[in-house]
Amino acid sequence: MKFVQKNACFIALFILGIGFFSSCNNKDIIAGKRDPGKPTVFSDFSPKEGAIRTRLYISGDNFGDDVSKIHVYIGERELKVVGVNGKQIYCWVPGQTSTGKVRVVIDEGSGKTVDHTFADSFSYVKSTSVGTLVGKVDENGNSGIIDGTFEEAGFNYAGWITYEPTTNVVLVSELDRAVRRIDLANRMVSTLITNGQASFNKLQNTTLSTDRDTLYLVDDNGNRSTPNKVAIAYTLRSENYRRVHPVLYDVGAFGFAQHPVDRGLFYTVTNGTPVKKGVPDPVTGELVPKELYRIGGNISGTLLFFHPSGNYAYIQVQSRIYKSMYNWQKQELEPAIIFAGGVAGDVDAIGTSARIERAYQGVFVKNPDYAGQADEYDFYFCDQHNHSIRILAPNGMVTTFAGKGSPTPDGSKRGYIDGHPRLEARFGEPSGIDYDVEHKIFYIAERFNKRIRTITVE
Predict the structure, then answer these.
(1) Is the dihedral of CA 221, 227, 229, 232 positive or negative?
(2) What is the DSSP-derived secondary structure letter of residue 26?
(3) What is the pLDDT of residues 336-353, one digit of tens each?
(4) pTM (2 d.p.)
(5) CB neighbour list of residue 26: distance below 8 Å, 6 or more residues apart
(6) Of 37, 89, 322, 376, whose CB is crowded by the most CB atoms within 10 A?
(7) What is the pLDDT of residues 98-140, one digit of tens each?
(8) Are 430 and 403 in contact (CB under 8 A)?
(9) Three-class SS of residue 384?
């Protein structure tokens, strides 16, 4: 029987990674246990080509109904088996796959397996695609801080992302509330730190140290008059990020960055736009605030990001991105000048002609096209209120990388759609972004959609 027929009506549903199938006519799908006394038949697979997230169907007979016993490969790359009903196997094609033969291995028990490789190859089409990693909402769009499997877990106000490559986990700051841990290998979400630890008032974000052994935590402690509460704290990977230690006291911190070479601690304060550095007290040796300069105005929500070279930092203030050069002799940031943006809006252009609505977390990513140039990095950042991911190039050019696809009649930019970054994908107030260099995956936190999204680059 050919798997895909012209008039077939087939809908694949899956729950908790264990699939079950339904269709317009339930009698067309008959699930059943595998009969070891009968041969396993492999008829065909479909489609014959596709990109990341392609749904691959394998047809035949006597597959059984236990997904844990079935393994499907394209070449050496194993696919995620989502469902099986005896006659059909349903899989997802992951990213970083290559063209190759489709192989199915079924565990019969007692060390015996059925192993079949189709004569035809699956042609993998490289693409950049937006997907959903974890998170869900109810019919009213609500969720909460819910630990558990990827199918169970929920997020309340996901606003900042830190990817930790050593243990392959993603840390998510639930703004004003907690730090969550996403275990990518085991597909589990847990809560690491809450406001109650280290007298936190409003946890804002997390940043890994340059040696990736220390996680710094930034707290908007609500104190606007005297610097007597923890503004910056830290926790160690060796302690599984469970114990929190104070680093510096101030009137509340909002942005934070460690210099990638000198390892100095720089931060911004919640109220106004002062840029500060933690310096040792000459008597106690403890870090105390030193104000370097003010950008100007009384706009809150200033964020700070060092270039990997340490030569400069971008300082984001709402719709503007400033550039602050690093004085290597003084080991301080020099007064910043506006580099991109200005008036709030949504325009891709160079320098101050560009329009940004609300710049939030950003990350520097090496661009192979810049090899040999003085600056080899682009800066990807969340434009929260334009519901998009944008790129700031070293020459000051701002372009839109992902989001605002699938336009609607009312002209809304916000939405929740996976797929092609520009033609289909839509975001809902993205504000957290980090990048896994090895696997070429962006992780994105969305405040409105209450999900963690991915952009896989191939």
Answers:
(1) positive
(2) G
(3) 999 999 999 999 999 999
(4) 0.81
(5) none
(6) 89
(7) 999 999 999 988 889 999 999 999 999 988 999 999 999 999 9
(8) yes
(9) helix
Contact 54, 131 (CB under 8 A): no
Q: How far apart are CA 113 and CA 107, in angstroms?
A: 5
Find, among 218, 211, 96, 129, the residue nearest to 164 by Cα: 211
Q: Please provide the distance, in angstroms rounded to a whole number, between the alpha carbons at the two ends of the chain.
A: 35
CA diameter of the chain: 83
Return the beta strands (E) in 125-226 as ranges: 129-134, 148-149, 158-164, 169-174, 178-183, 188-194, 203-208, 214-219
Contact 420, 129 (CB under 8 A): yes
Sheet of strand 77-78, all strands in order from the earlier edge strand to the far edge: 49-50, 112-124, 100-109, 70-74, 77-78
Q: What are phi and psi of 241, to 5 degrees?
A: 55, 35
Peptide bond into 47 cis (omega under 30): yes
Residues 289 and 278 sit within 8 Å (Cβ to Cβ): yes
Question: What type of residue is 344?
Answer: A
DSSP-derived 3-state class of residue 45: strand
